[in-house]
Amino acid sequence: MSRHTTARRATARRSARPLTALALAAGLLLGTAPAVLAQDAETPAGEEDGTDGDADPAAEPTEAGTGFRDAAVLGESGRGTARATVGEFLYWAFPVAAGHDATVDAVITFEDEGDRSGPSVWQIDVHDGLRRKQACVGGDATVEAAADASEVTLGCALRTVRSWAEPWSGDPLPGAYYVRLTAVELPEEDLGLPVSVVVRTTTEDAGGAHARGGELGAPLVPTPRAGSLDTGESSATTEEAEGEEAGSDADAADPTTDDGVRFAGVVAEPDGGWNGGWWSDRWLWTVGGGLLGALAALGGYAVVRHPRVRG
Amino acid sequence: MIIGRRLAATLSGVFAALTVGATASPVAAEPRPSQDPPKVQLVLDVSGSMGESYSAGQTRMDAAKQAFNEVIDGLPETVHLGIRTLGANFRGEEMDDEACRDSEQIYPVGRVAKAEAKEAVAALEPTGFTPISHALREAVEDFGGDSDNSRRIVLITDGEETCGPPDPCEVARELAAEGIRLTVDTLGLTPKDDKVRTQLSCIAEATGGTYTAVQDVDQLTERLGQLVDRSAEVVVEAPTAVEGAGDDCAAAPLLRAGVYSDREEMGEHRYYRVQLAPGRELRASVSVAADRPVDRDYAVMLRLLDEDGQELARGREAGHGRTDVISTGLRYPWAERAALPEADADGGSSASPSPTPSGDTDGDRDGEESVLCLEVSNAFSAPDSVQRAPGMPVELTVDLVAAADSPSDVAAFGLARGWVPLVLLTVTGLVAGVVWGLVRRVFA
């Protein structure tokens, strides 16, 4: 389902492309290029902050999940809180579209009254929709909290999400991302003590330099459905197998049960679509180059023809 | 001017070429049975020690009763709740067989009549011992027959098992391995007691639950409410239990898209088969849960093999330190593979004048579904004292989706960016204009 909507949306936008692009290119030629480029890079990120951060209360869960499948769902740029205990494994899921940079920050506030007996090491792990661990290229993902610390702050910046990658590469792809927060080292006596956690996700457009080609058949959003065994006899024909697979596609996109209850841990498609939209400042550069080329051609032509005209 | 116009026309042409829309066919979701109501069983320790003073003149029992009342008041409609006691009836001094079977269901798992449930709790008097293992077994029985939904047990106690062996932690692990999806959350009322804490956190770890060291009655109430609400709000379809083949892929179960659960012992391999149609992509993820104490370093590997045992893709992950699960995944589009067997088949038929039967089948396979093999292996290890059976929980997710469109260019739409292409285009235009001008000068 989501795939069709994306496709349709993209087609609708594409029809408006030439005019927009030409108009913008004209702007580039008039010398306003840097301003336009700068604006363009900033606006989408700003909009996301506004819509996903505050408007939707559902995007601000007050609980964390206990595993991948029941992870609490956050917005692209969202916030979640949880009251938990030392030693618990806390999970959140959030969507990231292609061409976006995602960052996760977490603040753990200790709520015991000086009961902790020693230092503990806290860590954020981010897994992608295939449950592959993704590298944190920025931020402190592993931090030691002293026994008397009142809070500890963690952060993890992911690599820019690609729109396409070779199947055997571990590159980050559009889809669900899972945040796991836990104490990876702790004195055994401190298990079960209360903490409160605030986790925040920030997703922004990485800009035209990271605008890539290619598209996945479906985002990396795993199905929430239980599997069914193929016993061989019942679905020996190709057609049935095809139907089964087509059904699974729909399942992956439809995160609700037949009663309309939403499955836990299924992220929603970001506002701009999974592929991050067709727009990038590459259009400006390319069209600008074409127009400059056209002007240079006219100029060159005029200069060479000039003597003839005068003479 | 002509060149200017031509350039504009070319540019428009490029734009027109780019307005080719993607196509996709609608697909229908197949109907599924509706969900069972979430079931929660509260197991409360009513042993003699619960009569000890807790805080502000309250006994532990009072605190537990207060928390229960508040949780029952705020209970979501959808939740089926049961209450079971341990150590509520036995009045003797000596611990014997009877004391170790002292666990009673005071409220059956089902829709809750709030007044009745509260009454049942109010009547409890602390006495007896703490037969946790027995209570856990009974609590699982209480849930009744088969259900595809999760079962959650919340165990509230102030003391460790008094009737061991067996260790309740091992009992919990066995119960969780019996094919039902069981989570035991434990709440310890005596966080300073090392034995209680170790046992309760072990029970939680064994079933993927949580352990809470309860500080005061407010925290007890809040936590209890949170755990009960969690079962109501979090809708997760229980994975289909499956048993992977141990050593032969041909005997492995054939999986469709969805989530499966299995058990795998330390160092064991398990095989599953998946059918992949042309133009489709297989995505598989696996998590192996460390539900018992394990050595510091561990790893998991997921490999995709073809019929001949050739590796097509793999995912692997290693880790160290405290963890709940270790996961990895892989994806594999059908199209990538088609080229290889075809090339082999061609090579084979050109070498021999008459094509061999095996060469034929290879050729025919092009454009048809292939049955691939998933191999899940783990490299967990543990001290000798740790029980190996039942195996550790494995969760396998299989997705079959449309294969990705390979990009014709790594840049979006093949567009240029930066000063080099800008200058290049300008210089090209200039040169073209000058040349055209010269041509016009010579021939006009």
Automatic annotation (TrEMBL), chain A:
<feature type="region of interest" description="Disordered">
    <location>
        <begin position="206"/>
        <end position="259"/>
    </location>
</feature>
<feature type="region of interest" description="Disordered">
    <location>
        <begin position="43"/>
        <end position="69"/>
    </location>
</feature>
<keyword id="KW-0472">Membrane</keyword>
<keyword id="KW-1133">Transmembrane helix</keyword>
<feature type="transmembrane region" description="Helical">
    <location>
        <begin position="283"/>
        <end position="304"/>
    </location>
</feature>
<keyword id="KW-0732">Signal</keyword>
<feature type="compositionally biased region" description="Acidic residues">
    <location>
        <begin position="239"/>
        <end position="252"/>
    </location>
</feature>
<feature type="compositionally biased region" description="Acidic residues">
    <location>
        <begin position="45"/>
        <end position="57"/>
    </location>
</feature>
<feature type="signal peptide">
    <location>
        <begin position="1"/>
        <end position="38"/>
    </location>
</feature>
<protein>
    <recommendedName>
        <fullName>Peptidase</fullName>
    </recommendedName>
</protein>
<keyword id="KW-0812">Transmembrane</keyword>
From TrEMBL, chain B:
<dbReference type="InterPro" id="IPR036465">
    <property type="entry name" value="vWFA_dom_sf"/>
</dbReference>
<dbReference type="Pfam" id="PF00092">
    <property type="entry name" value="VWA"/>
</dbReference>
<feature type="signal peptide">
    <location>
        <begin position="1"/>
        <end position="24"/>
    </location>
</feature>
<keyword id="KW-0812">Transmembrane</keyword>
<feature type="transmembrane region" description="Helical">
    <location>
        <begin position="418"/>
        <end position="439"/>
    </location>
</feature>
<keyword id="KW-0732">Signal</keyword>
<keyword id="KW-1133">Transmembrane helix</keyword>
<feature type="compositionally biased region" description="Low complexity">
    <location>
        <begin position="346"/>
        <end position="360"/>
    </location>
</feature>
<keyword id="KW-0472">Membrane</keyword>
<feature type="domain" description="VWFA">
    <location>
        <begin position="39"/>
        <end position="227"/>
    </location>
</feature>
<dbReference type="InterPro" id="IPR051266">
    <property type="entry name" value="CLCR"/>
</dbReference>
<protein>
    <submittedName>
        <fullName>VWA domain-containing protein</fullName>
    </submittedName>
</protein>
<feature type="region of interest" description="Disordered">
    <location>
        <begin position="341"/>
        <end position="367"/>
    </location>
</feature>
<dbReference type="InterPro" id="IPR002035">
    <property type="entry name" value="VWF_A"/>
</dbReference>
